[in-house]
């Protein structure tokens, strides 16, 4: 390993948060700044330097852009510091015995071209480089494990269950729906455009789907799609959608709460009026955080890689090019501009 003093110094453009955000974020809340990176690890440390290849844009990042009086499950971003997100990276310098130059990994990294990673506990080596590396920001990474854990571990499906997935064309929703189909369930999804609804029915094999923006009242819409009610709701939206779903759940239904994107940009959160349905219908409603399921990652990775190779799972990505595109790509999530999993290609190796 080259000594730190002789290490190469390279350009390292990075995206920082300019200020904490209230309401809808804008591209101006972030800034692309020039910087440099030394391709060396501190002497005696078990750190690695990685070259970031792909960066993930995920809705939960919005919650980190605000300042919270009560701590959340992930810390707030600090204005002036580089944003962090999940990414696919290549090791270019290593002081860690388990990581060598050229290893491909995925895990938390900086929104920049090169990152020094000092804690590798939640990073994973990539076992299937024959599949597109970008898949490890999505179907083979955190969103895929989120769908898998939320559906199988939380919702506990049975063959023949009636399943509803909101935000169904997104990174997690498209997979939750397809896993439900593989499990022998009847699956309906909602999305925010006719293009996405068509994708759900033709590409992802959903039994039915609807454009929620065209529905004036979600309650009769769900009754039309589920005349016998809903057994499992994979919740990504919250708000009015959750309220309508509760009215349409079957006895002993399960609600797997993955996220509530409709609430992330509101200064005054919406309430839910139909919560008594949880009592009357004996519904189990459970939230989960994917990090609690990382111990199951290797089992999931092998199963999902198999589904991809067998053609049982289809996956759609929305890729923008260059680190400078990260702010625009992230903001687009909250306006429904993305079709499929949103990610940024920083370098193609």
From TrEMBL:
InterPro entries: ADH-like_C, ADH_N_2, ER, GroES-like_sf, MDR_fam, NAD(P)-bd_dom_sf. Keywords: Oxidoreductase. Homodimer. Residues 26-344 form the Enoyl reductase (ER) domain. One of its GO terms (molecular function) is 2-alkenal reductase [NAD(P)H] activity. It comes from the Eukaryota. Pfam families: ADH_N_2, ADH_zinc_N. This is Putative NADP-dependent oxidoreductase P1.
């Amino acid at each position: 390993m080259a000594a730190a003093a002789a290490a190469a110094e390279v350009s390292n453009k990075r995206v920082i948060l300019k200020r904490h955000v209230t309401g809808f974020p804008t591209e101006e809340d972030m800034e692309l700044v020039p910087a440099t990176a030394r391709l060396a690890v501190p002497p005696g440390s078990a750190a690695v330097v990685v070259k970031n290849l792909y960066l993930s844009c995920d809705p939960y990042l919005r919650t980190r852009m605000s300042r919270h009086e009560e701590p959340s499950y992930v810390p707030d971003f600090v204005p002036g510091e580089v944003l962090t997100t999940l990414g696919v990276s290549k090791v270019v310098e290593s002081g860690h015995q388990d990581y060598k130059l050229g290893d491909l990994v995925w895990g938390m990294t900086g929104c920049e071209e090169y990152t020094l990673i000092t804690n590798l506990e939640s990073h994973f080596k990539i076992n299937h480089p024959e599949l597109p590396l970008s898949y490890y920001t999505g179907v083979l990474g955190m969103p895929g494990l989120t769908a898998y854990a939320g559906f199988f571990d939380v919702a506990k499906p049975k063959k023949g269950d009636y399943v509803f997935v909101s935000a169904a064309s997104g990174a997690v929703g498209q997979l939750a729906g397809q896993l439900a189909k593989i499990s022998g369930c009847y699956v309906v999804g909602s999305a925010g455009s006719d293009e996405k609804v068509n994708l759900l029915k033709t590409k992802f094999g959903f039994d039915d789907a609807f454009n929620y923006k065209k529905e004036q009242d979600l309650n009769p819409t769900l009754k039309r799609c589920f005349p016998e009610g809903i057994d499992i709701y994979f919740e990504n939206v919250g708000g009015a959608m959750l309220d309508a779903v509760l009215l349409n759940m079957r006895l002993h239904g399960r609600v797997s709460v993955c996220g509530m994107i409709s609430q992330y940009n509101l200064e005054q959160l919406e309430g839910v009026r139909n919560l008594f349905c949880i009592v009357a219908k004996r519904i189990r409603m459970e939230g989960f955080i994917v990090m609690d399921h990382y111990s199951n990652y290797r089992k999931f990775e092998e199963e999902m890689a198999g589904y991809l190779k067998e053609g049982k799972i289809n996956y759609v990505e929305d890729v923008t090019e260059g680190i400078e595109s990260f702010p625009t790509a992230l903001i687009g999530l909250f306006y429904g501009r993305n079709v499929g999993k949103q990610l940024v290609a920083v370098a193609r190796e």
